[in-house]
Amino acid sequence: MDKLVEAISSFIKDKFDVMKGDIIEKISSIISRLITFFILFLILMFLIGFLSIAAANLINDFTQNSYIGYLAVGIFYLIIFIGLYKYSKTGKLKDRIESEFLKGLK
Q1: Average pLDDT of the chain?
Q2: Residue 91 DSSP class
């Protein structure tokens, strides 16, 4: 009887250790993906920022005005924001983000 209890407790301990290792591996994978995503996101934001300034200055030079380019770029981003806001209200954006997140967990 003692051997049976010992075998069962050994089996449970081994299963727990395997599950603990799997959980640590998944958490490490998620953290590394998040860090990579944030680094790429930061670089993309700098790229978009500098390209927006360049586009605004180009439009300013073309129109020979000092503010029309910045206004045009601002309106462009406002249109993008409104489109994304309306898209998020349908629930499709949330579903897409959830499915991509769950895909990353597998």
Answers
A1: 88
A2: T
Rg (CA), the chain: 26
C-alpha 26/C-alpha 23 separation (Å) is 5
Residue 69: exposure state from Cβ atoms within 10 A (0-12, 13-18, ≥19): buried
Cα gap 31→42, rounded to integer Å: 16
pTM of this structure = 0.66
Q: Where are the domains of the chain?
A: 2-105
> Which residues, 6 or more positions from 70, have their beta carbon under 8 angstroms from its beta carbon?
56, 60
Determine the angle formed by the axes of helices 68-89 and 92-105, rounding to 10 degrees: 80
pLDDT (tens digit, 9 = 90+) per residue, 70-92? Answer: 999 999 999 999 998 998 888 88
